[in-house]
Design goal:
- The complex is a heterodimer of chains A (417) and B (232).
- Chain A has 417 residues and is α+β, with helices and mostly antiparallel strands.
- In chain A, 27% of the residues lie in helices and 26% in strands.
- Chain A has two domains: 2-161, 2-Layer Sandwich (Uridine Diphospho-n-acetylenolpyruvylglucosamine Reductase, domain 3); 166-385, Vanillyl-alcohol Oxidase, Chain A, domain 3 (3-Layer(aba) Sandwich), CATH 3.40.462.
- Chain A has 13 helices and 20 strands.
- Chain B has one domain: NAD(P)-binding Rossmann-like Domain (Rossmann fold, 3-Layer(aba) Sandwich).
- Chain B has eight helices and seven strands.
- Chain B has helices at residues 11-20, 32-40, 56-64, 87-115, 136-155, 188-200, 211-219, 224-230; strands at residues 2-6, 24-29, 45-50, 69-72, 118-123, 161-168, 205-208.
- In chain B, helix 1 crosses helix 6 (188-200) and helix 4 packs parallel to helix 5.
- The radius of gyration of chain B is 17 Å and the shape is globular.
- The chains are: A alpha+beta (417), B alpha/beta (232).
- Chain A binds chain B through residues 21-22, 38-41, 379-381, 404, 407, 412-413, 415, 417, and chain B through 66, 68, 115-117, 157-160, 199-202.
């Protein structure tokens, strides 16, 4: 795999002109799986394409693919604007956000990142730069298309006006999964998320937050890392006993029911960014994340997943539950209306892959799916069962890529192509 | 999914095609009538083509605009006579199982490499792992094919193309009709099931039944005097 960092679209065009072994674009490389890598192929990192142009009158921003969410917020928030959807880290690029069609804590009201994109410029494998808009098949195939339709060069994004850089956060402790589900749909602000402690003796206890914009106070629009996990972090520090103790502390120190505590947008949205290189905490073998969504009405599937996880020997160090609003029109977009559960487990847990294969079946049966951007292990059967509009996406993709140039390890592994 | 079956009348090959349920299937073989009959038994869109010299595989790739899976299922068992076999017949067994199959393998892999993805399924045999005294010619030819498939598979490991070597034991088919089934005898459907499972994962070698992997891990390392006494 050879990685290049082109400085402009001309350099990308030159790089792909004679490329025979396939190519894929890459943003910050924060996907947990193999979405932005290609064994034996060319990887085009877009992080030098950083232009940002705010149009105050239209309430839009034209951003190049390599601009990150953090860079956008740094220039937008002081002017009273925000991208309507931000993920759990500020270190994702605009190109990556579109290719993964990322979601945030406010999916219930705001939908995905792609919902707010008005136009995308994309470099196709034949060297043409094509502009595409919502409703067109290239646009819909590109949103959530895992970079397999071409290199996203820039996008125009509709912004939302915000009163200031602070949020009012409501916090509730919950005692069970059912309480968490209820609390996530209780009245309150649009940014909602539940942290669950799956290692405790009381399964599903956790902390639910709901947050809303407020118009006083001042804060930094981004998070600055306060510490970096060293490269040679040992493997045995994160273990069920230490995480159980940490979780108990976190649960115990959270307020039972608190209303309206103010916190900066950045601190609330990107808590993990305060600790640079946090995945190193898992030691050299790293971790796997499994993110599923099941439709509303399939809450029992969540229960079964959590129950099976608890009965297995696979320790889940971080579990996050969120509600999703209606799906958008993109055939490969992950979110559908229902519940999404995210599970982080150490890769040293040998039974994890087998366990996740079983989850795939449960999730597919309930009409749900697994998030490709997080995936490192899913099999083609599961993909077909989970994404019923796969053939429609493939047809649009094939039209956009007559050379068959774009591919990634993920695409080859799960049979996207 | 688009499937190319080379050896379009092979019972194992057709069982694989039925199991994988491709949307498009192309059957390549020598006998047009039998190919037509085989095509009737498959669902989805099916096309047939005759293997007449070079270019048939290349034409199939061009006509179908690529394949997701290519199954190479060419093989003849021949008589079991070994040294006493008619030389012509012995050469035919070697030619079909190694040279002809090998040539088709190269052509298929070129097609897959050009599209940068896809899997070639090569029907080898447990006989390839350690040729036996009872059918040395077939075993040696399959060993050649098996080795070629492994080597090319390794050579292409970074190209997006995968080679899946399938080593069934005794399979009850037309080819083995009238022979005494060996231990661990299996069926085309079981081979198809194992291939489907292998394709879905990231396997490079599939044994059918899977126990044969262990059995042959032992057999291939048996000291020769014991191997000979077993007279398999």
């Amino acid at each position: 795999m050879s990685l290049v960092r082109p400085g402009d679209s001309g350099a990308i065009e030159a790089a792909i002109a004679g490329c025979a072994g396939g190519a894929i674009s890459r943003g910050m490389g924060r996907s947990y799986g193999d979405a932005a890598q290609l064994r034996g192929g060319l990887v085009l990192q877009t992080t030098r394409l950083k232009g940002i142009a705010l149009d105050q009158e239209a309430g839009t921003v034209l951003a190049q693919a390599g601009a990150t969410v953090g860079e956008l917020l740094a220039s937008l928030v002081p002017a009273g604007w925000m991208v309507p959807v931000v993920p759990g880290t500020q270190h994702v690029t605009v190109g990556g956000a579109i290719a993964s069609d990322i979601h945030g804590k406010n999916h219930g009201v705001a939908g995905t990142f792609g919902t707010h994109v008005e136009q995308i410029s994309i470099l196709r494998s034949d060297g043409e730069v094509q502009s595409t808009e919502p409703g067109e098949s290239l646009f819909e195939a590109t949103v959530g298309g895992m970079g397999l339709t071409g290199v996203i060069l820039s996008a125009r994004i509709k912004l939302c006006a915000i009163p200031g850089p602070l949020l009012a956060v409501d916090t509730d402790r919950v005692a069970s999964l059912d309480d968490a589900l209820d609390s996530l749909r209780a009245p309150g602000g649009p940014y909602r998320v539940a942290w669950l402690d799956l290692l405790s003796a009381q399964p599903g206890r956790g902390i639910v937050t709901r947050a809303n914009h407020i118009d006083d106070g001042d804060a930094s629009p981004i998070v600055r890392a306060r510490a970096t996990v060293p490269r040679r972090w040992p493997a045995g520090v994160l273990r069920p006993s230490s995480v159980r103790a940490f979780n108990a502390f976190r649960f115990g120190s959270a307020p039972r029911a608190e209303r309206g505590r103010s916190e900066s947008i950045a601190r609330h949205m990107f808590p993990l960014d305060a600790l640079d290189a946090w995945p190193r905490l898992y030691g050299p073998r790293g971790f796997m994340q499994y993110q599923l969504v099941v439709p509303s009405g399939s809450e029992r599937t969540l229960e079964t997943v959590i129950e099976r996880l608890r009965r297995s020997r696979v320790p889940c160090y971080l579990a996050v539950l969120k509600d999703f609003g209606p799906a958008n029109d993109a055939p490969l977009s992950f979110p559908i209306e229902g519940w999404t559960l995210t599970l982080d487990v150490p890769r040293s847990a040998r039974a994890a892959e087998l366990l996740f294969d079983g989850f795939d079946e449960l999730v597919a049966e309930s009409g749900g799916r697994v998030y490709l951007s997080k995936d490192a292990r899913m099999k083609p059967d599961a993909l077909r069962a989970m994404y019923p509009r796969l053939d429609e996406w493939r047809a649009a993709r094939d039209r956009a890529d007559s050379r068959g140039l774009w591919r990634s390890d993920l695409a080859l592994r799960v049979g996207l192509l | 999914m688009k499937l190319l079956l080379i050896g379009g009348t092979s019972e194992i090959g057709l069982a694989i095609a039925r199991r994988l349920r491709p949307s498009h299937t192309v059957l390549l073989g020598r006998n047009e009538e039998r190919l037509a009959a085989a095509a009737d038994g498959l669902e989805g869109e099916v096309a047939t083509g005759v293997l007449d010299g070079d270019g048939a595989v290349e034409r199939a790739f061009a006509a179908a605009a690529g394949f997701d899976v290519v199954v190479l299922a060419i093989g003849v068992l021949g008589g079991q006579a070994g040294l006493d076999a008619d030389t012509e017949e012995a050469l035919a067994v070697m030619r079909v199982n190694f040279l002809d199959s090998g040539a088709l393998m190269l052509q298929s892999l070129r097609g897959l490499r050009a599209q940068g993805r896809g899997t070639l399924v090569v029907l080898s045999s447990v006989a390839a792992e350690r040729p036996r005294a009872s059918n040395p010619i077939y075993g040696a030819a399959k060993a050649g094919l098996d080795g070629l498939a492994q080597g090319l598979g390794d050579a292409m490991s970074s190209s997006g193309v995968r080679v899946l070597v399938v080593r069934p034991g005794f399979v009850r088919t037309r080819m083995t009709a009238g022979l005494q089934p060996a231990p661990f005898a299996t069926t085309p459907e079981a081979v198809a099931e194992a291939v489907a499972k292998g394709l879905n994962g990231n396997a490079h070698t599939v044994w059918v039944p899977s126990r044969l992997r262990l059995v042959f891990a032992v057999l291939r390392h048996l000291p020769r005097p014991i191997w000979r006494k077993l007279a398999l």
